[in-house]
Amino acid sequence: CVMPNCPTCCRPTETLEYLQVHLDLNLATYRGESIRLTPQQSEILHALYENSGVLVAREKLFGLIWKTDRPLDQDGVLKVQVCKMRKKLAKWPFNIESIWGKGYSLARRAA
């Protein structure tokens, strides 16, 4: 962790070992390397991280970002944010998987 005893930092898990998400800093770190995230991307990645390997429904992500379960015309915004996050995470061994019509999942990339 870039901040010792960070209260909002997620701890590493077996599935996503060494990945940490810092909501308060809009930052993700992996093995000492950091990437900047937008506040929306931080919320999305944090939700996916906390539910690693499990489907996170789009409605849950909408609720985190826009405080509603289905904002008008925001599905495209969510898709764009996920696309941008995939590019940022490309150098790390993690992938955001789409489950069409349902939501997203964060998992370690297959070797």
For the termini, the CA-CA separation is 25 Å
Helix/strand order, N-terminal first: EEEHEHHEE
Cα radius of gyration in angstroms: 13 Å
Shape: globular
The share of residues in extended strands comes to 15-25%
Given the helix and strand composition, which structural class is it? alpha+beta
Low-confidence region ranges: 1-15
Percent helix range? 25-40%
Briefly, what is this?
With 111 residues, this protein is an alpha+beta fold.
Fold blueprint:
Elements: E1 19-22, E2 27-30, E3 33-36, H1 39-50, E4 56-57, H2 58-66, H3 75-89, E5 94-99, E6 103-108
Task: Explain what the structure shows.
The chain is an alpha+beta fold and 111 residues long. Helix content is 32%, strand content 23%. It is built from three helices and six strands; from the N terminus they run E-E-E-H-E-H-H-E-E. It has helices at residues 39-50, 58-66, 75-89; strands at 19-22, 27-30, 33-36, 56-57, 94-99, 103-108. A three-stranded antiparallel sheet has the order 1-2-3, with helices on one face. The longest helix has 15 residues, at 75-89. It is globular, with a radius of gyration of 13 Å. It starts with 18 loop residues before the first strand and ends with a strand. The model is unreliable at 1-15 (pLDDT under 50).
Provide keyphrases for this structure:
111 residues, single chain, disordered N terminus, 3 helices
